[in-house]
Amino acid sequence: MKNILLPTDFSENSWNAITYALELFKNDVCTFYLLNTYTPAVYHVEYVLVNPAQFGLVDSAKETSIKNLESFKERIQKAFKNPNHTVKTLSVFNSLVSEVKDQVAEKAIDTIVMGTKGATGAKEVLFGSNTVHVLNQAKCPVLAIPDSFKYENPHELLFPTDYEIEFKSHHLNPIFDIAKSHTSRVNVLHVSYGNDLSVLQQKNKDILESKLAKVANVFHDVSNLNVEEAILDFQMKNKINMLIMINNKHSFFENLFFKKLIHHIGFHIKTPFLVIPSKTE
């Protein structure tokens, strides 16, 4: 049985991510945890110093959270009616990132599925700040669903890698789960810069080839492009249903999310983006 965490701010963006998750895991026995975290809109230091409860701020926010969670739960049950799925609600007074970390540990969460931005996210921002922090701090895979992306079976998976990481089971099991459930093909994409693979890279590539033998796969090598351009180019030439990366915290991922230049080179995720943590501890 899978435990799936679905953070929601009750926006249509988050509803879209929820429906994607319900479709993706429709053949799996799952417990879905609908999570909403709340803090009163005027929750400042002066209220903390006094007592926010005396102003009724926390109670009001909690009532709204619980009411909206129940509404989303009913909406799910009406739209999907899947006997494999159990939906539970979590309304918590906390910041989203902190609560996600707690719930991942407490509920043994397998995957977090969330939208790429919040209700007030600006159109030019690829990922809202909450999504970025969850992607970088969660100790389990996070699947980010682009705004308005309609579900399609993930037949073609794109997995860029520099072969700098020793592939472990917890890196590859999420890929295998999807590939086996949806008869997917894994497209491994390596960007070279004119140099041969190092001994370590070749060893890691051999390990990956051996482990991916269980599913359909194709290895691709491209040169004279940076990683962002290579991914975009591959997606333009091939129908890719999901982008998958391991967040090994060493260069590409940090550049992707935290350097402002990224917005000028047009790297926009148009497909669901699964981020697998390099470490689970």
As for the number of domains, it is 2
Name of the CATH homologous superfamily of the largest domain: HUPs
Tally the helices: 9
Largest sheet: 10 strands, mixed
Helix/strand order, N-terminal first: EHEHHEHEHEEHEHEHEHE
Fraction of residues in helix: 25-40%
Average per-residue pLDDT, rounded, comes to 84
Strand order of the largest sheet: 3-2-1-4-5-10-9-6-7-8
**CATH secondary-structure class of the largest domain:** Alpha Beta
Distance between the termini: 21 Å
The Rg value, from CA coordinates, equals 20 Å
| Overall number of strands | 10
Which architecture of the largest domain per CATH?
3-Layer(aba) Sandwich
At the fold tier of CATH, the topology name of the largest domain is Rossmann fold
Q: Indicate the structural class.
A: alpha/beta
Morphology call: elongated
Low-confidence stretches: 118-125, 258-266
What oligomeric state do these chains adopt? Answer: single chain
Proportion of residues in β-strands:
15-25%
